[in-house]
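Quiz preparation item.
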């Protein structure tokens, strides 16, 4: 009974956290635009917050490793994030908005990684339970994104804070009930390990191709809500589009082990990347919001295969003793770095040639990324034994620096 109680408490914390993510991910860019901020400056602001998250997340992880028994770190991060969110709601188009965005990003950067560490420590080797607990967060995102869309339709873009701020507070409060970690996991030397990983040709090529692909995806996602609104879509449809994309991730993640045994991890990575690129092309081809809503159905499946396959491939290929470093490099390059480049450069391009013009450019970049990824992983598939590869579980979150605040 105590075990089920802990699972319920952990699920509650994820539900609250991803209710906040479901409020800001689809609508924060739209809120910035409602303040009269130009697209180029929106892109720079998004890049700035990603950079703050990139810097803050490893610091949160190091602190958590040194005081693994503390129950107050996640609430403290939630307090910082909530303070920043309140500032975003009231600062308006002033320099204080930048300060508020930085504060919010620093707090958010610590919540999800530390929560993952605590829950993974709680479930131990039983990763299935972790998957179900984390799925509660995805389900919460799918529920709240459309609800916030309806609120934004009726009350304006600032209505997102009616859900985001209380959800962050409740996430921090509910996280207190999570059991403390029994010990600390210390990372290997960061001076030599990255070079060892990057000298391993398959991983180096794969990281380059993956980063290019995530840059293209980030550039499109950063302005997708604004793009839908420019096509006449109501905010409720914006929320549904993001929710449907997230919905299709769940079955793909559950089916991934079976698909990998049948087709191989490497082929699934390429297939997932190709599906994502088809969605990028659809965003350029179609201008009917309903068609774009339908196309969102396939993106989630492709994204899930690309992400889970990438983590697995890096785990398999990492040189001995560098598994955590390899995963950390993958997270940093395809997470925060791709977001910084995608939103920052993407905003400048969108300001010059419109969002649809940006989408045409990023669709070409994404197609090039598929070729680069295939060149990196398919030779490894051919060199492996005929037996399909085993699914290698990624290292515990405590061992992997996660540089990005929760985002879809």
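Solution:
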């Amino acid at each position: 009974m105590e075990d089920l109680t802990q699972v319920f408490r952990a699920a509650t914390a994820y539900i609250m956290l991803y209710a906040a993510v479901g409020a800001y991910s689809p609508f924060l860019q739209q809120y910035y635009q409602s303040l009269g901020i130009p697209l180029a400056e929106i892109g720079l602001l998004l890049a700035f917050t990603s950079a703050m998250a990139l810097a803050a997340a490893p610091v949160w992880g190091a602190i958590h490793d040194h005081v693994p028994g503390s129950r107050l770190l996640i609430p403290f991060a939630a307090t910082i994030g909530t303070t920043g969110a309140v500032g975003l709601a009231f600062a308006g188009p002033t320099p204080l908005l930048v300060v508020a965005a930085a504060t919010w990003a620093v707090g958010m950067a610590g919540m999800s990684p530390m929560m993952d560490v605590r829950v993974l420590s709680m479930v131990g080797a039983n990763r299935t339970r972790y998957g179900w607990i984390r799925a509660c967060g995805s389900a919460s995102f799918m529920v709240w994104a459309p609800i916030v869309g309806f609120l934004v339709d009726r009350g304006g873009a600032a209505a997102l804070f009616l859900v985001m701020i209380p959800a962050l507070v409740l996430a921090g409060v509910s996280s207190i009930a999570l059991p403390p970690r029994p010990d600390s996991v210390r990372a290997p030397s960061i001076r030599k390990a990255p070079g060892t990983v990057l000298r391993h040709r398959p991983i180096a090529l794969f990281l380059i191709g993956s980063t290019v692909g995530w840059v293209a995806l980030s550039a499109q996602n950063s302005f997708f809500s604004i793009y839908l609104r420019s096509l006449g879509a109501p905010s409720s449809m914006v929320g549904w589009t993001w929710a449907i994309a997230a919905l299709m991730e769940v079955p793909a993640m559950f089916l991934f082990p079976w698909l990998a045994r049948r087709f191989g991890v490497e082929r699934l990575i390429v297939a997932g990347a190709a599906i994502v690129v088809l969605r990028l092309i659809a965003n350029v081809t179609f201008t009917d919001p309903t068609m774009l809503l339908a196309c969102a159905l396939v993106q989630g499946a492709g994204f899930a295969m690309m992400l889970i396959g990438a983590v697995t491939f890096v785990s398999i290929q990492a040189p001995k003793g560098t598994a955590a470093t390899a995963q950390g490099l993958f997270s940093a390059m395809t997470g925060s770095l791709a977001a910084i480049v995608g939103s920052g450069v993407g905003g400048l391009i969108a300001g010059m040639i419109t969002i649809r013009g940006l989408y045409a450019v990023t669709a070409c970049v994404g197609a090039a990324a598929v070729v680069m990824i295939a060149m990196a992983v398919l030779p490894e598939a051919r060199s492996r034994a005929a037996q399909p590869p085993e699914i290698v579980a990624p290292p515990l979150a405590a061992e992997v620096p996660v540089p990005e605040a929760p985002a879809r």
